């Protein structure tokens, strides 16, 4: 289907009290004291009754509200308007970047209109709302997504063309909003997309990092270099700075006893330093709805912009010191994935973010004039992993110290409001903060955490008298030197629900992470909500060719918001004509990626080869090392073949992508090994197209959108029990790519949905991993023979100076092969052979590919968000009309 026109809709039944663009919500009218009020400054309230003067004013505003951009002429006018008045560009001086910006501003106008009506509607209905606290939102690009959501891409493309540009070019001008590391941040982005589409009143809260995840460059030696990502340097049309929304956030200082108005003594946090948190809003369009979601991101700002005293004394550096320190707080995103570095600046970021967010949420609640005990009827707070857990102590502090509630009433509110999503069982990723650091930075919170722990342990002691072991196991404070605050434990104690992100992971959360808490709370507190991805970005937008044949075959676009509809494709899995169409689309997507690789990297790959892709953060547990060792094995075998044997080989392009944390030495060495192997293999003329190895630099959302639709096979080969869910596995299968994977995370549920005959699985099962590790530790690692041969080849210098790779190879031998590469190597190679053989049967492969897409309905983030709304948030959609 080439066109898609927006359905005409009935007008909203209820006329809203203020016209669109200039609602008080957006401005939150601030009356400046230095401006004398004059008679005409009438600010009508939202009440139903207005004075005649107010009525006249409202009518006037209404009549002046900007119109829809209904025709391409309107759109052209709007773009020219923004070029002239927003960007101040003459028509001789409009380049692609300026045109992208003007177009984005024009689209933003449409979005803001929906943003404002959504806020008005929420203000009027005042429903329960959910706030998704996430350190990361890996949004990627906004323009294309907004155009699709507003169903106006065709019109904009025509308008842009009429003005002398191509939409394709403009889309490429946009920088990714890369405010995240990997899966966790991308999940948050998918969830706000689904929330907006399903019209749930959900807002995201996060930080506005000036530098998102670093830009990865692969240098001439094949190593990863990191450079800052200046994503905001051309301005960002998709965010709105809200100078009217600003809060104080305090650090350091001490705790004092104070009398309150009622003459009771209260503890109070005094002194220290303060910073401002200033809000930036990013509208999140919903698909095929007038509802618009929001992400509110905080930026740190100094209290004292400029120290005049210091300046006058000639100390110019000191004059801007405060400013520098405050600016640093939200400058950088920590580039770690599934790893906690325990740095003070990180704790400051976390507290700054949750404090500002809670102040904002409490302000909104107080406007409703409801009693505090109704707080959890109005507010649900979801903690996306351990990073925002300090919010539990902060809400308790705000309620007790600032709002004057009794401890127990406050704690009741807290535990009914918060829910916690665990994303990993890897111990190195579970945050712990040292007690001395906490006492220094957040002295009052440390006391509160001690009290939370004390009251909790007293309850446990009452329930299980004399069970000292149990008390030690569940204590929020770890008795180490120095003592540590176990943040995940605080989350379990302070939340009403704890969820894992895939079925197996949720079982491991109960069994390995929090077994003692099951004893205290019972199993009902612990639930599973399997992750999902948004079909809008990951199929509709990323794979237009597949989108069109799906819509054509199913006869409607219903599947875009009801992904289960894809099951109807199963009927066509054996249909030869449909198979051909389907595989033609795959071929075109492979051509698109091949062209990208050729243009950007100068490597030519053939779309006739099997495209084998592994793109994700580089981490030992994800085992890119296993993949490249398998590639070396393949190369070794190819080298030993004669021509007739080679003629039977399935040609393969092995594509890697992903960033390693800058301090993660072993992961960076894996990148180096991949690039060293690529250099040798790609330049071996005797091998030709039979094997190519490509490392695509700077993997990010916009690249994922080109890479994902082009896979024949993608690899999700984590050591069983280590990948909580994975979401790129879902993206690939949704786009008709088969999986080569381990029995881990969401791979298992994908298998159950698409059928085990449509997925290539291998490897040790999760429940066997501990024993094998134990034995390897005890008896040493007995290396698989093929693996030994691969190591020998590396050590022979076949891929350059072998000594470089010693630390990597040591992880297999002296390191005890913690991730079971040797144990799984043989199963991996055998499955790869099966992949090669199956790929040669084009009909069978086409059928499997269709069955993959057809079985993915369950993995829509729409389903996941509904589950959160029903099982955790108790949240209802607020229809936009
Ligand atoms: C989906 C996605 C991820 C997550 O990939 P996994 O394989 O699930 O770890 C990471 N980065 C980007 C850019 C993504 O789009």
Automatic annotation (TrEMBL):
Catalysis: reaction(s): [(1->4)-alpha-D-glucosyl](n) + phosphate = [(1->4)-alpha-D-glucosyl](n-1) + alpha-D-glucose 1-phosphate
EC number from the UniProt entry: 2.4.1.1
Cellular component terms (Gene Ontology): cytoplasm
UniProt keyword Transferase, yes or no: yes
Cofactor(s) needed for function: pyridoxal 5'-phosphate
One GO molecular-function entry: pyridoxal phosphate binding
InterPro entries reported in the protein's UniProt record: Glycg_phsphrylas, Glyco_trans_35, Pyridoxal_P_attach_site
Composition skew (Basic residues), residue ranges: 1-16
Region described as Disordered: 1-20
GO biological process, one term: glycogen catabolic process
One Pfam entry name: Phosphorylase
N6-(pyridoxal phosphate)lysine modified-residue sites: 731
Source domain of life: Eukaryota
Alphabetic keyword roster: Carbohydrate metabolism, Glycosyltransferase, Pyridoxal phosphate, Transferase
Similarity section: Belongs to the glycogen phosphorylase family.
Function: Allosteric enzyme that catalyzes the rate-limiting step in glycogen catabolism, the phosphorolytic cleavage of glycogen to produce glucose-1-phosphate, and plays a central role in maintaining cellular and organismal glucose homeostasis.
Protein name: Alpha-1,4 glucan phosphorylase
Top-level taxonomy: Eukaryota, Fungi, Fungi incertae sedis, Mucoromycota, Mucoromycotina
